């Protein structure tokens, strides 16, 4: 070749693409398009998957991806329109069936098309941010069929109609419903929500608004709740059978709002069947149902709780302020406990031990128990009764449960110090008269009080028990020295040495003891003081008891169990047959009220009248004359002469106790004030009041006026001073 | 029945296999689709063979992979051609998994050394989630797919690339310096087509700003970058990956470290972003953890209050080990240090186990780079990468367990990156990077 010819070569830019058969793409696409048609016409068995796949692969490889993709979109759209027409043409009930069968076919076809175009999906679609084939198929179905104007409304209407028919008791084809709703879900959550769920919820709302109105007019509360529960379960059932699981909270919310929320007030306040009558009649099932249903709406439980609290406070107030009930403290407390048990059981069985309900119950009890100022005394009396006799022959667990219940009432008390006062008195009586049934029960209650209120609350009560024990030891020692020293002729003496302060002693109560006793007493005093130097003993004659052997005129011999005062009186009759009231009073020096009471029990109690009184009457007057009742007889050898005791405190005693309590509170309030001021140095009046109240509320609720008085007293004693500028401020003076 | 048997004819050569073996390829593959009941091929035409118009020798290797789960490439067979065939059958993932196992620093093998076209001085190397990587080099970014085939190089109009990162195997984000005419900044590109996908913009006071994008990090849905504008726009920007829209901008006044940050790391478990501003970008080191839900710092550490002295340790790189609640740092002497992420009073605990001999000043020096995979820490030093394995709860108790060094070497290491079960090591003197992988399931003894 010549050089010239070589020069004729034209240098052209290098071509990447070697031009292929220009109709290659057209031809290949035609094959694929035909295959897609065949697939939609259920005629795929004649197709070779490998060939189709290879063709699609080659098209993408040779950069005809764009053509392949747009061709696919067009062909599929065409088929969708066709399907839409056949579905539209379906008549009546066949509509859904047709839609469903076409949907199943479409899914299958789509799967096959995706298989063929798998390579395009992996590469072209990925690189050019196109919609993958499967998703594309769903989108086309959505836009051309489900949302086509002639199908959309008809589909919705048909579905809602079926649901409505099922609600009114008809049987529908749930399987078909499930397939259709599943199709909507498959097309994307928004399709299901917008095209079905929202109208479905609206329809449910309308339906239940009307129905609940009918129920309210025709049913009582329990019946209504039963029906509401049934409806709710039906809707949940419906969701599990043929709706999307996400619809459950939505549809239940609709039912809850229409059936419960909007009718709540009406239901609980229903005459003769509402909450109050359920509570009164212990309708556990109905209450439980009400709780479960109301639990579903936001203010439901609040509604129940408020009404229950109101009812509780109302009945409670009636209970504690009923003058009839005040006559028997034990019965009074028992009624409280019964009421508490009743509501505990309701809360446990029907309200699922809901804490908020328990709190409401507690606050209600706290409210009405403290309406009656005598509650602390009554509770203590109830305990006294139980510990004296009530617990005889009762198992340990039952004892515990009674004590726990008492403690529960105790917790409601605001004036715990008043309870303590009474409890101390009652305990002292029990201990000294040896009437406690069970030492364990006593101690167990004290442990409970201790855990509830702290060491200080019970230290004196525990002191009483210690005294009892040391007294027993002392007596053993005393009796041993007696036995050693001389023949024991005189009366046996049992002494209980009580620590001053621990016991509720009444000072000044003394009397002249018979000489025999007095000598024994002196011996004991000598013995005791010889072992415990520097102590002082005083005799609390008002608290003792004595056993006397008496021989009556008719020859009857009896052992009389009497109080110390009664013993003094009876011993007088060893020397005289007949004594005037005044003579007795002079000889014994017993305080008048105690003397009268002792004489009353000796002379006026039928069957136990050891003395005779002239004239015969119920009351003791100063002119009365007393004789030994020679005709006294009893079935028993031992006779217990009980002093006529007013179990409940009489009005003046009550006042006295009250006063004592108030007196005791003063130092406690002062101590609290000083403690607070010492820490805070400078504080205004309102803050002191609130802090003191807070500190003391475990024991009692201090009256602000009293606190103010205490502050003034402290200012007088120069613990505090008022701020010179702001008179409301108090300053602590160290 | 016997219908489990399948007779294939691949490029004229008959193969007999079972449906079960083909189904092993997975539903997304051509082979499994071919025998799907939709196509009614096998059940009707049991006796007939299915023809596939491909090269039988590659098919036999791939069929063996489906049968045994192991990949044995006969000598002389082109790996690239094999991968192309795998792509046709839709079993690329199977091949990739057979070829390499989960990253384990102690069992790494250097499977490839790829040379670039230019001479040395690559800026950064970043791993892609599928085992590919990209190398930033001046104003160019070279992208390699998982089979280490180079894709279309991305040229950034002569602005310097600061950082790159993959949003997914098909999409890289590139951070560049600004140039003043709205060029520069940050954008994402499709790696196969080379086309721009999104340009990420910074908008402040309703004005678009020119900015230099520094370091980069991405979570599942968001993209974070440290940004430095011309006038007082310093901070961390947040964009939506799908739409490219700016979501948030955490502004700081100039002189504050966020906008100058040279390393960002997204911590997926705690939903926090590690931001490290280090020497030489700033005189002092600042490392902090940002919570974008509250838009505040939840943890931070700095050495700015420490006394300057001659042999003072300057933090050169930092990385968080989320599993150990520790931030690992490395200084100019290649000492590793550990800071506790869980409390705020946190001195660096320096580890002296791994002290290097002083490098002579004349030699060009590359400072240590750090990378993390689970509880394994990778640290580059000179021409080697050291692997430290630590108990899950305390990185500072880790011990060095392996040293990775390619015999012929490419000079000092300028950057390392971990991702897609591979470790990529970029050398400084010669433009070459090494790919280290854990060998696949084939031929590995089970570890008790």
Automatic annotation (TrEMBL), chain A:
Q: Which InterPro entries has this protein been placed in? A: Cullin, Cullin-like_AB, Cullin_homology, Cullin_homology_sf, Cullin_N, Cullin_neddylation_domain, Cullin_repeat-like_dom_sf, WH-like_DNA-bd_sf
Q: Locate the Cullin family profile domain: which residues?
A: 374-603
A Pfam family assignment: Cullin_AB
Family, according to the entry, reads as follows: Belongs to the cullin family.
**Protein name from the UniProt record:** Cullin family profile domain-containing protein
Whose protein is this, by species?
A: Sphagnum jensenii
From TrEMBL, chain B:
InterPro entries, alphabetized: Beta_prop_At2g24240, BTB/POZ_dom, SKP1/BTB/POZ_sf, T1-type_BTB, WD40/YVTN_repeat-like_dom_sf
For this protein, the record's Pfam families field holds: Beta_prop_At2g24240, BTB_2
Q: Please, which domain of life does this record's source organism belong to?
A: Eukaryota
Name the SUPFAM superfamilies on file: POZ domain (SSF54695), Tricorn protease domain 2 (SSF69322)
Ranges for the BTB domain? 4-75
Pathway listed for it? Protein modification; protein ubiquitination
| Protein name as it appears in the record | BTB domain-containing protein
